[in-house]
Each structure stands twice: as structure tokens, then as C-alpha cells.
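Example 3.2
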Amino acid sequence: MGLRGSKELIGLLGWLLTSCAYSFRSGALPPDVQTVSIPPIQNEASLVIPTLTQTFAEALRQKFISQSPLSLVSEKGDLTLYGRVVDFKVAPVAIQGTQQAAQNRLSITVHIRCVSARHPELNWEQSFMNFADFPAAQPLTAVQEVLIADICERIAQDIVNKTLSYW
């Protein structure tokens, strides 16, 4: 293969790479989708933590403000995200030889429904769960606020990723 063949091969590879990149961009939001609204989050978990829905809603709002091109509006956004906390639980995860838990796991599950009046292909519904482990010797009340904030941040990130890269 001479110099000309090498150039053609490089050109072909470049074309293939840009073609692949183009196909991934098909998941971008339509240009007329510019706003998102997040009505109050409902709490349907059997264990109700009074600050949980506010912490989650604030984490979700901040993720959209800082990581998306969408503007946050109070109502009637181009996308509306309806959310419900459906589970909040603590369970042992690391059992020691004496059958006593060394670690507990706090897990939170949120159900989100995304609705677009103009673009029904953007509509989706999904549950998101995340968790954090903490030493069983620590009472939940001692670590609850920090763990909830951390878990809510991770769930909010998953929701923003899902919303901005629909397939």
C-alpha cells in the first residue's frame, strides 16, 4: 500500500468515525425543547422523612440548571418531570460471623414520569434507585442527612442523563 492508499484509508477511517459520532447525536433533544418544569415531588414511601422530597427536588433542579441547556420554569415546561419517592429503606448488607450486621444500606427509589406535550417521543417513565452504606454501629439519624443528599445527587444525575439523551 503506497502513500495514496494510506491517505485513502485514513480518509475512510475519519469518515467512519464522524459517521458514528453523528449517529450518537440522534439522541439530542429537539431545538424547540428549551424548558423543564418539576412539580412538587410526592412521597409515597412507607418510611417518611420530612426533608427527603425537598432535598431530592432541589438536587434535581440544580442538576438541570448546572448541566443542561434547559431553563427551569415553575410550570408548563417543554418537558415536565413528575416524581414520587416510592421507597426509603435501611437494610443490613455485611453480616459478621456473629450474625450481626457490620454495614447497613440506605436505599432510595424514585419514580419519574417525563411528559412533553409537543414531542410525545420524549415521554418516558422509569424508577431510579441508589444507595449508600454506613457502619451498623452508627444510628441512621447520625448520618441520614449526608447520605440522603448524596443519594439524591446520584439519582438526580441519572434522571438528567436519561432526559437529555433519549433514544
